[in-house]
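Reagents: none. Just compute today. Transcription regulator PadR N-terminal domain-containing protein.
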Amino acid sequence: MVMQEPTFFILTALAERPRHGYGVIQAVADLSDGRIRLRAGTLYAALDRLADGGLVTLDREEAVGGRLRRYYRLTEHGAAALAAEVSRLQTNAAVAAARIRSYGSRTALGSA
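Predicted 3D structure written out:
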């Protein structure tokens, strides 16, 4: 299964430690150098989907300022899925890097 980039970064954010929703939003923005900015509704829909798939689970709930704050954590299944995606991306990057090197070599030979 190819993982969408926001899902990849949500799981990556939770690989470090359990986080509440706003913490996940901040971590994803940081990890993606600001390229991915999740809205709360998008995040919670993703977290529900990931929980249904067994990739994340509710870690705990805390009352903060009269509001309930839910913390989510990565499951073992989620960690395995993230590791598989990292491996897939590394393999793809290695193939592309080899082709780019080959292209550079052919270009240099052609211009000589």
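The chain has one domain: 5-107.
Action item: order primers for follow-up constructs.
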